[in-house]
Structure formats: structure tokens, C-alpha cells
Amino acid sequence: MGYRIEVVIDDCMSSGKCVGDYPQTFDFDDEELATLIEDGEVMSDDDMIRAARNCPSRALLVFDASGTPIPT
Ligand code: SF4
After folding, report:
1. How would you write the pLDDT of the chain (72 residues) with one tens digit per residue?
2. Which ligand 1 atom minimizes the distance to the CA of 28?
């Protein structure tokens, strides 16, 4: 644990992949763009990497505990 995932909202194309796969963590905002649920379920590091790899528009970024981007 210890990684952090972030949505680059300008890059989200509303595919719904992250929302469908991890509905306890991601939701759509009013513009149908992915957003992290406040107080949502914390994903495992592996799931963060998996979600980022599965995002068709590469809009999910993963960082380690020191803030360094994790290649996905
Ligand atoms: S998987 Fe990527 S493009 Fe699809 S909703 Fe999530 S952030 Fe947006």
C-alpha cells in the first residue's frame, strides 16, 4: 500500500472502465467524467496500476508514497 491514484480530468473520455471495475472508488461527476469518491474505498497498489493500464485515455496516474510517478 501507499500508492496514490489521480484522475487527469481533462484526459478522461468517460469510458466508464474505472467506474465499472472499481465502483467503490470511482464515480462520474456531473459532466460524466471520472472522479475519486470522497472517502471511497482505498485500492491496493496493484489495483491502481491495473486501473491505470486499463484506462483507454491514460487519464489515471499512479504515484508512490514520495510522489514519484509509477510507470503504467
Ligand atoms: S477509465 Fe479512464 S477514460 Fe474511462 S472513465 Fe475512467 S478515467 Fe475516464
Report:
1. 699 999 999 999 999 999 999 999 999 999 999 999 999 999 999 999 999 999 999 999 999 999 999 999
2. 5
Q: Say how far apart CA 48 and CA 15 lie, in whole Å.
A: 17
Give the atom of ligand 1 at the shortest distance from the alpha carbon of 51: 1
Strands (DSSP E) along the chain, which ranges?
A: 4-7, 26-28, 34-36, 60-63
The fold of the 4-63 domain, in CATH, is Alpha-Beta Plaits (3.30.70)
Name the residue with the closest Cα to ligand 1, atom 6. 18
- Atom 8 in ligand 1: which residue has the minimum CA distance? 12
Can you give the pTM of this predicted structure? Answer: 0.95
Around Cβ 54, how many Cβ atoms within 10 Å? 15
